[in-house]
Specification:
With 274 residues, the chain is mainly alpha-helical. The longest helix is centred in the N-terminal third of the chain and has 35 residues, at 62-96. It is globular. The chain has one domain. The protein has helices at residues 6-21, 34-58, 62-96, 100-129, 134-160, 175-197, 202-221, 228-236, 239-260, 270-273.
Length: 274
């Protein structure tokens, strides 16, 4: 099977997620808004699902692998709905209770989240479409945790890295540099994988393209109020509309990708049918 060390890579991503989000989510589980749970639970289950898929494939437990893969069809709408919930929360915070982080970086965050949704939709659709091509399918599925990586890794950098550590309100401007460095690290991972596996690792190049788009747009929009009117519009919308739209996008992706990957029907010759 391709990427024989993949389970360890996914486990490392899970460890970074746990460490990065521990202070702001896992340690205060009962105190966070419901939007954090919508995203956090779905994203955590998604990465666990990718780990299970990789683990079972490498142990040739293909029946379990297929069952876990089919469960992703139901999970994916919740994953995208959860990302839409964070966009909703960003808008609601801008409207109802402005905080310095979202005032500075609201435009960057909403663009980054929108690109994350586009990345997930593209990667997962292509993973389903090419599910009968082992290298392509596994590459696209294993690329999805990269899209989750920059946020928790950026928080770790803000906690411990000299020059990026946040010690008080005067250091909040370091949030965006930490995110940019985290995405740069993601691109290093993509480059290493492509250098080692070349064309077989092209799915990671697709993920890398979205990461570059995030780096450029989020960096350019840092401290920019350009999209604040959009965030205020989102903040005044019913949460169900935003989350429902995300869920619908995810459901449509599952349906379209599954059908795109079906085996083509083989016509039965008329003589044989008779």
């Amino acid at each position: 099977m391709p990427y024989r060390h993949a389970p360890y890579y996914v486990f490392a991503v899970m460890l970074v997620i746990a460490l990065g989000f521990w202070p702001s989510y896992f340690a205060i589980w009962n105190e966070v808004p419901w939007q954090f749970h919508a995203h956090g639970v779905a994203a955590s289950i998604w990465v666990t699902m990718v780990l299970a898929q990789s683990w079972t494939a490498h142990r040739k437990q293909f029946g379990i692998h297929a069952a876990v893969g089919k469960s992703s069809l139901l999970l994916f709408p919740f994953l995208i709905g959860g990302l839409a919930a964070i966009i909703d929360l960003t808008g609601k915070t801008v409207v109802a209770a402005p905080d310095p982080v979202r005032t500075m970086f609201g435009s960057s965050f909403v663009v980054g989240l929108a690109l994350a949704i586009a990345a997930y939709v593209t990667l997962y659709y292509r993973a389903l479409k090419y599910r009968r091509k082992v290298w392509v399918h596994s590459g696209y599925m294993l690329a999805t945790p990269l899209i989750l990586f920059e946020s928790p890794f950026g928080r770790i950098l803000n906690a411990v890295m000299p020059g990026l550590a946040i010690r008080g309100p005067d250091d909040l401007h370091l949030i965006m540099p930490a995110i940019e460095w985290a995405m740069a690290f993601e691109l290093i991972v993509v480059a290493v994988l492509w250098y080692r596996f070349r064309d077989k690792a092209n799915p990671f190049l697709v993920a890398g393209g979205f990461i570059v788009a995030q780096m450029v747009t989020m960096g350019l929009l840092a401290y920019s109020p350009l999209l604040m009117p959009v965030l205020r519009t989102i903040g005044n919308m019913p949460s169900a509309a935003m989350v429902g739209a995300g869920f619908a996008i995810g459901a449509a992706t599952s349906w379209a990708g599954w059908n795109a990957g079906k085996r083509p029907a083989v016509p039965i010759p008329l003589a044989q049918a008779a």
